[in-house]
Design a protein that fits this description.
heterodimer, A: 398 residues, mainly alpha, Formate dehydrogenase/DMSO reductase fold, B: 251 residues, alpha+beta, Alpha-Beta Plaits, three-stranded mixed β-sheet, two-stranded antiparallel ribbon, globular
Chain lengths: 398, 251
């Protein structure tokens, strides 16, 4: 096998500058939104005392779980010794760090008191899964940074597999931690399920790989570097497997809920009567995010078309955001069951009622800013360090 | 007749008046001394010999009465949004809920507030420990360390917490409230520490409903402990086994 040669992108074309400017614009808009929300209070958002986590958290959670999934490509090469994946390891690790940074940016900028961020370090409550997550994220940054360094530094080659294994194990713990943020909320009908943590892991596989495929395609298309079918088809087929797995977990999750009578009402709300939530579940998560991508990836007419595969990856991302939205918002919009067997005739704090949530522009801008931040980090990263192989052309042709 | 005249004499009137004033001063200061003797000095930490609790008798709770809610809002300085937010963004430290049993049709009215759980989910999930439980069982939010992440609101099984969505003016000196922080019922901790009842309990009594009893659950001689021992009561969502400080009857 030929030795892989990595090189930075030139990054001086008007198109590259325009890309950076566009991403920068979204990041600045997110900063502005955050300042606006901080200045006026969350009264300017659509979030309220019932739906306390809104669109910013949908984006943040999506990016954080995608981050650990993006590292998968590197792990397959390093941990499982699949040589075909090894050239992709550096980009995979860079993307993982970038997505995590983007997600955390959104999460932090939505806090009621951003100025007190350091309190999380000085006053940690280790019984809180949130506090664990702060350390899970920090260590993840460190481990992946070391992993990248070992991949790039010839002298560190003997240790790079160990670093890769450590990062791989840590990413599993990290996503379990993210899933557990919801899984441990025993009081909420929609969240109280042990399957939540493994489901988040499989979601991370799918979302992370979809973003990786798009970033890889864009990088190689725009820099006119060869990207062979061997690499692309492998990734594409893997994405198909992951989409199926997410769909399987989603079905099992809802079927398990349907088995328990106490969850019938919340399931009816999500699957049938939830209005926007129901539409986002069926059209966003199931149709756009699962069935159409599977069709595009496997149908004889489209399976060899790269544009169609890229479209499938894009749909997986949109569907993934929809899936996180349904999980997050439905669990809050659906009322808590405080008085079993009782009907709430009136309440001055919306007991027993399904509450609606309409995201405001600053919230959406903040979420998009997180994605822009992640992509900007990748765009700058590939310009300053040797993340991208000069060619990913098929071996037999070279 | 002379006796009657005598009783209205100016001297006798002055004497009675001054005696009444003296008696009043004496009684009041006596009460104050008793209160002070029971109140905790400010420099002394609370301890777990006391566990404050509340018993709410829904049978006595007036359907159209909102005295407890009004008193809480007045005492702690929360109310409707000042900057035109949505109604769901308004704070709600205590609320009235009107229920009907689906089987029997029996209607029940009751106030819902922070249940001051012994194993409070809000305390468990708070990343900074801003949500905390005092030794005497009162669950509070430390406004200096709350970062406004709202995880406690996600975890609370009772929807008992509110997020301050806007800048607050006209705050009460004893209850600083800050934009971007989470807040909830404090059991009127500032009053309890002075041996007074929470504002809601006082208002309920003043209105003649007597639906709320407040006291020390650990003291077998306290009225609340005696009632709980002699009469059946329930905890809302007792399946979660949080051992709440707030108990209900007639639900």
């Amino acid at each position: 096998m030929k030795k892989t040669v990595y090189s930075v992108i030139q990054g001086n074309s008007p198109a590259y500058m325009a890309l950076l400017a566009l991403l920068g614009f979204f990041v600045l808009a997110a900063m502005g939104s955050s300042y606006y929300m901080e200045h006026h209070g969350h009264v300017v958002t659509g979030m309220h005392n019932k739906v306390v986590w809104g669109i910013p958290h949908v984006f943040a959670i999506f990016l954080i779980i995608a981050a650990s999934g993006a590292l998968n490509v590197a792990s397959i090469g390093t941990v499982f010794n699949k040589t075909d994946y090894k050239p992709l390891g550096r980009l995979s690790a860079l993307l993982a760090i970038a997505l995590l940074a983007g997600g955390l940016l959104v999460l932090v900028l939505d806090l009621g008191r951003i100025d007190r961020l350091l309190v999380t370090v000085t006053h940690a409550n280790f019984k809180s899964i949130f506090a664990w997550n702060i350390y899970l994220y920090t260590v993840f940054f460190g481990l992946v940074a070391v992993y990248i360094w070992f991949m790039m530094e010839r002298k560190m080659q003997p240790y790079y597999r160990a670093a890769g294994i450590a990062a791989f194990i840590w990413r599993l713990i990290l996503t379990t931690g993210t899933g557990s943020i919801f899984g441990f909320l025993v009081a909420r009908q929609a969240y109280d399920a042990a399957i939540m943590a493994p489901m988040f892991i499989i979601m991370s596989f799918s979302f992370g790989l979809a973003i990786f495929i798009l970033v890889l395609s864009a990088s190689y298309n725009w820099t006119k570097r060869p990207l062979g079918d061997a690499v692309f088809l492998r990734l594409k087929n893997l994405l198909g497997v992951f989409i199926s797995a997410v769909l399987y977990f989603s079905i099992v999750f809802h079927l398990a809920n349907l088995y328990a009578t106490e969850h019938h009402d919340v399931e009816h709300f999500i699957l049938v009567s939830g209005g926007a939530i129901t539409a986002i579940f069926w059209f966003g998560h199931i149709l756009l995010g699962s069935l159409i991508p599977l069709f595009l990836l496997y149908h004889p007419h489209t399976k060899d078309n790269r544009s169609m595969s890229n479209l499938a990856a894009l749909l997986v991302i949109i569907g993934g955001i929809c899936q996180v939205y349904v999980i997050l918002i439905s669990g809050q919009a659906f009322p808590l069951e405080l008085f079993p067997g009782m009907e709430v005739l009136s309440s001055s704090f919306y007991d027993g009622q399904i509450t609606s949530y309409s995201p405001s522009l600053p919230e959406i801008t903040l979420g998009l800013g997180g994605i822009a931040m992640s992509l900007a980090i990748v765009a700058v990263g590939v310009k300053v360090l040797n993340f991208l192989p000069s060619t990913l052309a098929d071996q037999s042709k070279s | 007749m002379s006796e009657k005249n005598n009783s209205h004499s100016p001297e006798r009137r002055r004497f009675l008046g001054s005696t009444a004033v003296l008696a009043g001063v004496g009684v009041t200061s006596g009460i104050s001394l008793v209160e002070l003797a029971q109140a905790k000095p400010d420099d002394q930490a609370v301890n777990n010999s006391i566990r404050w609790g509340m018993l709410i008798d829904a049978n006595k709770c007036g359907t159209d009465c909102s005295a407890c809610v009004d008193a809480c809002s007045e005492e702690q300085g929360w109310g409707v949004s000042q900057h035109g937010g949505s109604p769901e963004q308004d704070p709600g430290w205590i609320r009235k809920v009107h229920l009907r049993d689906k089987q029997t049709g029996k209607e029940t009215s009751l106030p819902m507030l922070c249940q001051h759980c012994e194993t409070a989910p809000c305390v468990d999930v708070c990343p900074t420990g801003a949500s905390f439980k005092r030794e005497d069982g009162i669950v509070l939010v430390d406004r200096h360390t709350c970062i406004g992440c709202r995880y406690c609101m996600m975890a609370c099984p009772y929807n008992a917490r509110s997020f301050v969505h806007e800048a607050i003016t006209d705050q009460k000196p004893h209850m600083p409230r800050g934009k971007g922080c989470v807040e909830s019922c404090t059991f009127c901790v500032h009053r309890i520490d002075k041996d007074q009842s929470p504002a809601c309990v006082e208002a309920c009594h003043k209105d003649g409903h007597q639906a709320m009893t407040f006291g020390d659950l650990n003291n077998p001689e306290s009225p609340i402990a005696k009632q709980l021992k002699s009469q059946s009561s329930t905890q809302i969502r007792s399946d979660l086994r949080l051992n709440q400080g707030v108990r209900y009857q007639g639900v």
